[in-house]
Specification:
hydrolase, Peptidase_S9_cat, Probable glutamyl endopeptidase, chloroplastic, alpha+beta, two-stranded parallel ribbon
């Protein structure tokens, strides 16, 4: 939500702090929240709900906080085995 607000309503905020979130909804192609349609059935919804697709509009500072133990599928990162 923070990234979306900075992208679409920059006149309301001078900066933002975003905790774990789903910044690219195309990474959850089989539905999210109340959206049951897939990425291929509702492409516009996924693109509109993805702050990643509007990142070029964000001109204000944003601090993204993401925890190592976050199990949110929208922010899943690859673990490197050493």
């Amino acid at each position: 939500m923070t990234a979306n607000l900075l992208a679409h309503a920059p006149h309301l905020f001078s900066c933002g702090i975003a905790r774990s979130g789903a910044y690219n909804r195309t990474l959850t192609p089989f539905g999210f929240q109340n959206e049951d349609r897939t990425l291929w059935e509702a492409t516009n919804v996924y693109v509109e709900m993805s702050p990643f697709m509007s990142a070029n509009k964000i001109k204000k500072p944003i601090l993204l906080i993401h925890g190592e133990e976050d199990n949110n599928p929208g922010t899943l990162t690859m673990q490197v085995m050493s």
